[in-house]
Design goal:
The complex is a heterodimer of chains A (385) and B (86). Chain A is of the alpha/beta class and 385 residues long. Chain A has a single domain, classed as Thiolase/Chalcone synthase (Peroxisomal Thiolase, Chain A, domain 1, 3-Layer(aba) Sandwich), CATH 3.40.47. In chain A, 33% of the residues lie in helices and 17% in strands. In chain A, the strands form four sheets. A five-stranded mixed beta sheet of chain A has the order 7-13-12-8-9. Chain A has a four-stranded mixed beta sheet with strand order 4-3-5-6, with helices on both faces. In chain A, a hairpin with a 3-residue loop joins strand 12 (363-370) and strand 13. Chain B has one domain (3-85): Non-ribosomal Peptide Synthetase Peptidyl Carrier Protein, Chain A. Chain B has helices spanning 3-18, 42-56, 63-69, 73-85. Classes of the chains: A alpha/beta (385), B mainly alpha (86). Chains A and B meet through helix 2 of A and helix 2 of B.
């Protein structure tokens, strides 16, 4: 379904309905509530209280395990690596709202059970019967790109035979009001790389990937979708919200990931950009790409799928890793939608305007840059068949 | 005190307070509140004590009293009537 939406250039950004917001922006990419029962074997009382991001994570994890042909309870020591930024913040906010509005005479502790960031990993592991180590990381908007890297690393180092990487986040007042106060939200659905771009559009959701060694996949007859060739993470040490003006850390993450993958920059056939749609991010990111790829960049498709899916914050890295896997597997260049007036500074570049197109891809890069200068780049390759 | 009215209020409180996905009239009058039927756990028990204390101005000071009060919806109604009658 995601592949079809990406290929069609669907924009999932619409009106914000999750909560009332008094600020400037009122658009978001919201997840439609599913009527399907949540997968797995959680007791009804636990299910009933699961926060939105934990629900998202559970659906994504179950779908990933099913697609990988991984029989949940045979999972044994499957490791679980989660990236998130705000966990059950919306439920926490709702508990405070109810208390201060007098709807609850006392503070309701059961409404805070989703507050710790580790609850997604706990819920997924219990529901699907995964007994391996768990790590939950929070590095702002690169959280789950890092989770994917950590999961791949755990497999590579032999810590676990199979690792599940998950990114999850739900819209909440804290992030919505916070980004709006920073004037980082576009009042229209976001327009990455457009000369009129005014900011990002927040989204929510979860994505999950199953990682294992090629030998392990072969032995159990699984069909790999893509290969993690390399990754790198760096820090800007510059500012709480602004990217480093020269993109030093972002460039170092990208070159580091390519070096770790043993892939020359020339071999990259597609870049799934961080591409938020803020003035600063897109400008710095393109400069980074120019520096790393040089003149080759003019022939290298670069797209920002946040224009379709919104910026899912802690989930964004895993979401875009999945998008990149789909791009590699299906030979699909998903378009940067809402791109109507290309910034003239970039008119030499291929920013994949609508409707996107098809191309055979062997190697692709996806990068995620978090507030505070948390940079992660992943280099993914098409699975050999 | 109208027992039927109170029974309805108790069921409505269970559903809204614990966010149950069941129509209040479908909750059994005489089945144990913490049996298998409603799928409640120990966190729900803590919550229900607070909810009942707040809503009906009664006191459930310990597990002994709680066990009696939550034996069923009817038992809870009896408990509230008795407490408020004193």
């Amino acid at each position: 379904m995601l592949a079809a939406g990406l290929a069609a250039g669907t924009c999932g950004i619409g009106s914000l309905t999750r909560f009332t917001h008094a600020g400037r922006a009122h658009v978001a990419a919201e997840v439609a509530e599913s009527a399907r029962p949540l997968p797995g074997r959680l007791p009804p009382a636990t299910l009933r209280r699961l926060s939105h991001p934990d629900r998202f994570a559970l659906r994504a994890a179950a779908e990933a395990c099913a697609a990988a042909g991984l029989d949940a309870d045979a999972g044994g020591d499957v490791g679980v690596y989660v990236g998130t930024t705000t966990g059950g913040m919306r439920e926490t906010e709702e508990a405070y709202r109810r208390r201060s509005a007098g709807e609850d005479a006392r503070f309701r502790l059961s409404r805070l059970l989703g507050t710790p960031l580790a609850t997604a990993a706990a819920a997924v592991s219990q529901a699907l019967g995964l007994y391996g180590p768990r790590e939950t990381v929070s590095t702002a908007c690169s959280s789950s790109a890092l989770a994917v890297a950590m999961a791949a690393d755990a497999v590579r180092r032999g810590v676990v035979p199979v690792a599940l990487a998950i990114g999850t986040d739900a819209l909440c007042r804290l992030t919505y009001a916070g980004f709006d106060a920073l004037q980082a939200l576009d009042v229209e659905p976001c327009r990455p790389f457009d000369r009129d771009r005014q900011g990002l559009s927040l989204g929510e959701g979860a994505a999950a990937l199953v990682l294992e060694s090629a030998a392990h996949a072969r032995a159990r007859g699984a069909c790999p979708r893509a290969v993690v060739l390399g990754w790198a993470a760096t820090g800007d040490a510059h500012h709480p919200t602004a990217p480093h003006p020269a993109g030093a850390g972002a460039a170092a993450a990208l070159t580091g990931a390519l070096a770790a993958a043993g892939v020359p920059p020339d071999a990259v056939a597609y870049v799934n950009a961080h591409g938020t749609g803020t003035k600063q991010n897109d400008a710095v990111e393109v400069e980074v790409l120019r520096r790393v790829f040089g003149r080759r960049l003019v022939r290298m498709p670069v797209s920002a799928t946040k224009s379709q899916l919104g910026h899912c914050l802690g989930a964004a890295g895993a979401v875009e890793a999945v998008v990149t896997v789909i791009a590699l597997g299906e030979g699909l260049l998903p378009p940067t939608v809402n791109l109507r007036h290309l910034d003239p500074a970039w008119d030499d570049l291929d920013l994949v305007p609508e409707p996107g197109r098809r191309a055979a891809l062997d190697v692709a890069v996806t990068s995620s840059y978090g507030f505070g200068g948390h940079n992660v780049s992943l280099v993914l390759g098409r699975a050999s068949r | 005190m109208d027992r039927d009215l109170l029974r309805g209020e108790v069921k409505a409180l269970l559903v809204s307070g614990l966010r149950l996905d069941v129509p209040p009239p479908d909750i059994a009058d005489d089945a144990p509140i913490f049996g298998d039927g409603l799928g409640l756990d120990s966190i729900d028990a803590l919550e229900l004590v607070v909810l009942v204390e707040e809503r009906f101005r009664v006191s459930i000071p310990d597990e002994e009293v709680g066990k009696r009060a939550f034996a069923s919806v009817n038992a809870l109604v009896d408990f509230i009537v008795r407490e408020l009658g004193e």
